[in-house]
Amino acid sequence: MTHINNLKSTYYTLKTALLTIAFSFVSVFSFANHPTHSTTIDSTLVVAEKSHNSEAKTNNPHDENHGEEKFDINKTIMEHVADAHDWHLWGHTSIHLPVILYTDKGLDIFSSGKFNHGHDVYVGKYNYKNEHEKIHAVDESGNVLENVKVLDFSITKNVATLLISVFGLILIFLTVANGYAKRGIGAPKGIQSWLEPIILFVRDDIAAPNLGKHTSKYMPYLLTVFFFIWFNNMLGLIPFFPGGANVTGNIAVTMILSVITFVLTNINAKKAYWKHIFLPHVPLWLYPLMIPVEIIGIFTKPFALMIRLFANITAGHILVLSLVCLAILFKSFAVGFATTPLIVFISAIELLVAFLQAFIFTILSALFIGMAVNIESEEAHH
Amino acid sequence: MTGSIAAIGAGLAAIGAGLGIGRIGGSAMESMARQPESANKIQTTMLIAAAFVEAVALFAVVVSLLGNG
Question: What Cα–Cα distance (Å) separates residue A73 from each residue in A322, A327, A328, A339, B60?
């Protein structure tokens, strides 16, 4: 019993301590964030402008008279938010990730460096060309073959980041689990003491109020999804190597997460949940209206989960990037100095959003699952 | 022209979401001041409600992004 009391008191003290730590991280990270952010942009800008110049020269020679090429802010931002086949580090240095393609002629595996940033055509079973990070099969003269379907299973930047984050999470949580196996439920030590309040926060403030007596059954999923989203959100905010990919701002990733919640909700749903959908407590003539609405309702909940996480993280990245691009757009140091505090401020807010979105996704998952599995006890209250 | 119209759409969505989240935040603050002992619970519910409102605004942002081409 004393163990549990100990645990609780450490939980409450650490809960307050956690906020302080979080805010100190905010300042450290955001100050670290800014200069590197702008340098990454700067260096890629050189590449972007160079390629842009060469494009302009071939496409419309009229533009040459205008001197300097106009900076395309949309293109630059989208390049940074979207997935890529190679991982840009700095200047002209990037990690060439493997490209894995499947066509009707079979598998093709090669390095993305073979594309030379979209300038070259790789000759495999087909000739492949990388056009704006979408790989097409082309013929000898470089025209896209529309009838050849290229399935892209490449280890892209996002996939590589996913692998890194999964490895990191496994490492962290195996260390924590080993700590409990060795010391039992006593005073935590090391990284354990940092994670214990967060795990307890997920259990007591997210899962328990929504799931009631089913809490322990869904805790593994909720903890996994919470830490996965949080870790990847934070990783996405780091502008240089281990971060920099926009994993949780990739709609495929958020779709899989929400599909898991959808499947869990509907597989574990009680009879009353389905009764509520197909035999609602309304007059009979309302059935043709209510049943379709309820059926659509099953799908809109996970759909909203998917869009919310995707749009929040992507919007955050776009916001920071467009503020950084302002100085480059106006080609002025004064604008750069003016936007710097703003970028720091927005980055700090993004750190809060990173946590908040993980929290929201987890609590809504718990809410939806809870609504499906606890529906009988709810009915009894009426 | 599609770009500018999409931007107007995003702006309108921002107005709606701003009003909604403002109301949620204001009411939550009021009720927290009245009943500080239930501040924790109110805060959680406030965040959930804000997330729902925000989702609608973000749908609009996504649609305007798509509309922008």
Answer: 7, 11, 9, 16, 21
